[in-house]
Amino acid sequence: MFHHLTRSTVLSATVDLVALQAAATCSSTGSRSDTPAGDSTGRSAPSRRARSRRPSADRARRSGLLTACAALLVATVTGCGTAQSDTLGPLMGPSTPGATPANGAAGAPSRSTVPSARPAPTPSTKTTPPAKPAALVQTTAHGGRTVALTFDDGPGPASADVLDVLAQYDVKATFCEIGPQATANPTMVKRILAAGHRLCDHTVHHLQPFAQLSHDQQVQEIGPAKDMIVRAGGPGTQVPWFRAPGGGFTSANEQVAAAAGMRSLTWTVDSLDWTRPGVAAIIANVQRELRPGAVVLMHDGGGDRTETIEALRQLLPWLKAQGYTFDFPAA
């Protein structure tokens, strides 16, 4: 109950007690005078007897201070005297915060030095932003003197001939397929996979300019196309890449592709075979833009691909003669 008292209070009370004790000693010495009744003090015996019968205010005060000081000293020695106030608190007060004294008045909260419990921190409601998609894929997986051939807009009527030429030169390639065409040609999709080639998502409807579509439209073009390709290829079919029609990539559609588990695949060499410029022009376009680690754009769908197939027959042996090997895009 003395936890409100400070060491300074204890010392002050002790000094007061010592002073009172000294005063009391002096007073007691005077009161034990051997002067008989009626002597030179001028006080009669009855007067002294009356005085001795009165309660001594000094004695009562001294007794109370002795009790308080003893308690204070015990509190100090036991370490309970540490206080947050220099004012002597009531000797008898509520022992717990909010306790009500006997008179019914609301008690003052205890000022114990035990720190009050702090409320647990409120969990942060901040959400972690989605991972930023990796940069556009525009090189081969292994770099060096390698090249990755990619064929867009299939599967279509030219796909079988393209596969035959690739098999002749033992070359692997990547096929960027349009969803409904994969659905319409599941046998060809399975053949592509069985030959060791890989697949890429090329949207549902091949709409252009793709980058100008609304976000919702792009979402409906990317994810569903992958689902169509996977169903056409059968269980275990992997579609590691997404290619936007016309190269219409944006940070938004790259994020959509990344959320679907695909990296965005562009190209570094455009053969321009889709314009049907002639076999020689297709070959010249590739040879002019070719660099180690290049990703070459060609087509196995979207129209007549006779020129593409013939250009491919000449390009593959030429590439090998230049020391190139064939690789997949970086994944």
Report on this structure.
The chain is α/β, with parallel strands linked by helices and 331 residues long. 41% of the residues lie in helices and 9% in strands. It is built from ten helices and eight strands. β6, α9 and β7 form a beta-alpha-beta unit. The longest helix has 25 residues. It is globular and about 45 Å long. The two termini are 74 Å apart. The N terminus is likely disordered.
What descriptive keywords fit this protein?
alpha/beta, 9% strand, disordered N terminus
Strand content: 5-15%
List the total number of helices: 10
Q: Given the C-alpha coordinates, what overall shape results?
A: globular
Low-confidence stretches: 1-11, 22-55, 71-119, 121-126
Mean pLDDT rating: 76
Instruction: Report the count of strand segments.
Output: 8
* Helicity, as a percent range: 40-55%
Give the termini separation. Answer: 74 Å
Radius of gyration: 50 Å
Largest sheet: 8 strands, parallel
| Element-level helix/strand string | HHHEHEHHEHEHEEHEHE
Find the structural class using helix and strand composition: alpha/beta
SSE topology:
Elements: H1 7-31, H2 45-53, H3 57-77, E1 146-154, H4 159-168, E2 174-177, H5 179-184, H6 186-194, E3 198-201, H7 215-233, E4 241-242, H8 251-259, E5 263-264, E6 269-270, H9 279-289, E7 294-299, H10 306-321, E8 325-326
Parallel strand pairs: 1-2, 1-7, 1-8, 2-3, 3-4, 4-5, 6-7
Helix pairs in contact: 1-3, 4-10, 6-7, 7-8, 9-10
